[in-house]
Amino acid sequence: MSLDKYVLLVILFSGLVTWLSRITPFVLLKKFTLPKIVVNFLSFVPISIMTALWVESLLVQHLGSLPSLNVENILASVPTVISAVISKNLMIIVIVGVVSLGVIKFVM
Amino acid sequence: MKVTGDLTARTGFKDTIPTAFGYIGIGVAFGIIGQSNHLSVLEILLMSLITYAGSAQFVIVSMVALHANILSIVLSVFLVNSRMILMSTVIAPYMKKESMVRNIWIGTLLTDETFALSMNKLNYTEHRLAYSWFNSANLTAYLTWFAASGIGGALGNLITNPEQFGLGFALVAMFIGLLYLQIITDKAIRLGIQFSVVGFVAVIMYLGMALIPENILLLLVALLGCTFGVTLKHVFR
C-alpha cells in the first residue's frame, strides 16, 4: 500500500483547517456568551442548512446558467416526504427514501 | 425506533443508526471513487480518519487527480467546510458546562448529520444535550464512515456504479426527515415563518447555483436563510 507524500500533506493540511473550523467556536464560546440577537439568528441554522442540503441534491449545477433538475431525486423525495408526515420515524423515512430511489432507477 | 428524551451513550448510538445507512452508501462511494482516481486504500483510510470531511473529501480527490497545488486544495476544503463554524457555534452553548477537552472532542467529530440529529433531539429533551449522547453519535458516524470508505476502496473495480442501488439517497432522505421533524416539533419558531425560510432557502439555492459553486453556496445560503428568518421573526412578533 503506497502513501504519496503529496497526498499525505493534502490530507494533513485539509484535516487541520477542517478541525479548526469545527473546534474554534467551542473554544471561544466556553468563555463568552452570545448576544440574544445572534442566538435568534442561529436558531434558523438547522432548517436553513437542511433545506439547502436537500435542494442541492435535487439540482445539477451548470455554472453560468440555471441548474437543471435531478428528476430521480425529485421523484424519490415525494414518497419520502409522505412517509415523514405519516411515520415521523427517521428509520422508516430513510428506508422509504432508499427503496424509492432504487425503484425509480430500476424503472427509468 | 422513535426518538426519546433519553441522552445516554446507548441512545446516542441508536439514534444514529438511520444515519449510518447513508454513511455506508456515501462512504463506499467515496472509497470507490478514490480508488478509481489512483488513491491507495491506505490513503483513502487516512483521509477518512484525519480529514473526515464528507463532501469535501470528494472535492479533494478530484483536485488531487488534477495535481492541484496544496494551498488551493486546502482553501477549497476550508470554504466547503466553513459551514462547520456555523454548526459548532450552535452546538457549543449546549456543551458549556463540560470541560474544554470534551468541548474540543465534540467539535472534532461534529458533522452535518450529527448536527442535524442533535437539533432534532433538542425537541425531546427540554432543550438539553449531553456529552455522552453526542460523543456516542459522533463516534458511530465516524467509525461507520471510516469502515465504509475502506470497504469502498478495497472493492474498487468490483462495483463501478455504487449509486445504482439508491443508497446515496439515504442521507438526503435523512435530511428530509429531520427537516420535517424539526419544523413540526420546534415550538420556538412559528410554523409560517419556518415554511417561509424553507421556501426562501430553496429559491436562493436554485438561483445561486447559476453563479457560485454549490459547496460554497451552502454556507452563503444558510447565512441568508438565517437573516431572512430572524427578520421575519422580528417583523411578525
UniProtKB/TrEMBL annotation, chain A:
- List the protein's name: Branched-chain amino acid transport
**Which InterPro entries does this one have?**
Brnchd-chn_aa_trnsp_AzlD
Lineage top rank: taxon: Bacteria
Bilayer-crossing regions: 6-29, 41-60, 80-104
Per UniProt, which keywords does this protein have?
Membrane, Transmembrane, Transmembrane helix
User: Pfam families, from UniProt?
Assistant: AzlD (PF05437)
From TrEMBL, chain B:
Q: Which GO terms describe its biological process?
A: L-valine transmembrane transport
Membrane-spanning residues where? 20-37, 139-159, 165-184, 191-210, 216-236
Give the primary localization class: membrane
Keyword entries, A-Z: Cell membrane, Membrane, Transmembrane, Transmembrane helix, Transport
Q: Does the keyword Amino-acid biosynthesis apply?
A: no
Can the keyword Transmembrane helix be found in this entry's annotation? yes
| Membrane topology type | Multi-pass membrane protein
Q: Name one GO cellular component term.
A: plasma membrane
Q: Which Pfam families match?
A: AzlC
The entry's family comment says: Belongs to the AzlC family.
PANTHER family in the record, alphabetically?
INNER MEMBRANE PROTEIN YGAZ
Q: What is this protein called?
A: Azaleucine resistance protein AzlC
